[in-house]
Amino acid sequence: MQQLLSLFHPDQISIRHETRIAYSRDASRIHGECLAVVWPETIEDMIRLIGWAAETGNDLVPRGAGTGLCGGATPQNSVVIDSARLRQIGSIDIPANKIVVEAGVPLDLLNRHLKPFELFFPVIPGSHRSATIGGMIATNAAGLHAVRYGRIDEWVAEATLIDGKGIIHHLSAGDRGGIAGWEGITGMIVQAALHLTEIPQQRSLTLLCFDDLKGMLEEVAHLKANPSLSALEYINPQAAALVGWAAKHTLLAEFHSMDGKVEATIDMAAIWRARESLSARLTLAGFPISEDPQILPEAQESTLDWLAIQGIPVFGHLGVGIIHPRFLQGDPRILELYHRVSASGGQISGEHGMGLKKRQWASLAMKVKAQALKTQFDPQGVFNRGKLC
Ligand SMILES: Cc1cc2nc3c(=O)[nH]c(=O)nc-3n(C[C@H](O)[C@H](O)[C@H](O)COP(=O)(O)OP(=O)(O)OC[C@H]3O[C@@H](n4cnc5c(N)ncnc54)[C@H](O)[C@@H]3O)c2cc1C
């Protein structure tokens, strides 16, 4: 560590016990061993750090806000690279609706910056207050408005990656296979050019409650046919009761039109606040573990029915089939859920990534692709060792 300490200004590196404990896990609650934390400020800092890791055989773990829920940013005897000082926001290219930002920029900070220009970045995970653009790209984040805006990879025009050999890549829309969704195993994303979109002129929403799951899923299909639909969230009876709503299957549908019943900004904000409070409320209620399967439409009724019968609280982005059943740590029904999802052709992870938590569940195709990317970008295994491959 002495050699590493000598490479950085003392305020850019820490090996203090408290720091190492604080960086020993992400929001997944999976703990690991952090050897040191480095806060790079420039590309030269990154290249020096990668050179040291390659020479000494150390593992580097990129970290944004640490809101990841699968241990992707959990170190395993690793040096954590915190992107918190990569926070430059470039000027907006108004004619092209584009902006260049550094990887450590938190999403809400970016959207506050864009608001006066009546623009926004529309990929909005539930963790939008702190999740960083780098972490979102690395996990190919989806989120609350995925039904309209899709995943982040559709919004990245170009990204700059420094790989495990210290080589800088400017990956364009066509060749960013080494970045989006690869959870930091190919290198550190330092910057990205992002497409932006206009803040909608009209917004409204509707809350719909159902006793009957089948009827609710028919309504989902009907709502998805509305071209102004901008969010379609599901809350099951167990979760709805926690926010004081009727204990029924509930849909929150938002529109970029006046098709919804609730139009007052203040009322819409209160409904979204209740929906967004669910994660923390469920943790307090004894369900801290968040899963994120993506269920095919034909399997949604049987899966949601099984979860409700089991008394498992669920919410999520049903418009794109991603749901968040919540469990107590170690609940054996988590494995049962994985088996059910795999057997019905769904994805065990719809948006959080595989990290340490689900790496043994990665498909053979995913492992083969991860290995090929590793060989291309990080043959010495400098970045995020033991994750995905
Ligand atoms: C309450 C809550 C709600 C959530 N809701 C959603 C949701 O709606 N949709 C969704 O997709 N996710 C959601 N998540 C999961 C998580 O917030 C997202 O995955 C988010 O994009 C991670 O961003 P981060 O900056 O916190 O990344 P981190 O947690 O720090 O890292 C995540 C992964 O990305 C890698 N990484 C981080 N930065 C870089 C970088 N600069 N270069 C290379 N690799 C990097 C890490 O090594 C790790 O593998 C939620 C999490 C919480 C706690």
Residue fraction in strands = 15-25%
How many structural units, i.e. domains? 3
How far do the termini sit from each other? 27 Å
Query: Which term fits the overall shape?
Result: globular
Describe the fold and architecture.
The strands form 4 sheets. The chain has a 6-stranded antiparallel β-sheet with strand order 12-14-13-16-17-15, with helices on both faces. Strands 5-6-10-8-9 form a 5-stranded antiparallel β-sheet. With 389 residues, the chain is an alpha+beta fold. The chain has helices spanning 2-7, 17-22, 43-56, 107-114, 133-138, 146-149, 213-224, 237-242, 265-276, 278-284, 297-309, 333-343, 364-377, and strands spanning 13-14, 33-38, 59-63, 76-82, 89-93, 98-102, 119-120, 156-163, 168-172, 187-195, 197-198, 204-210, 229-235, 249-255, 289-290, 314-317, 322-327. It starts with a helix and ends in a 12-residue tail after the last helix. A hairpin with a 4-residue loop joins strand 8 (156-163) and strand 9 (168-172). The longest helix has 14 residues, at 43-56. It is built from 13 helices and 17 strands. The protein is globular and about 65 Å long. It has 3 domains: 2-85, Uridine Diphospho-n-acetylenolpyruvylglucosamine Reductase, domain 2 (2-Layer Sandwich); 89-199, Uridine Diphospho-n-acetylenolpyruvylglucosamine Reductase, domain 3; 204-343. The mean pLDDT is 96. Residues 26-27, 61-69, 72-73, 83, 103, 125-127, 131-132, 134-136, 138-139, 141-144, 183-184, 188-189, 279, 351-352, 355, 384 line the site of flavin-adenine dinucleotide.
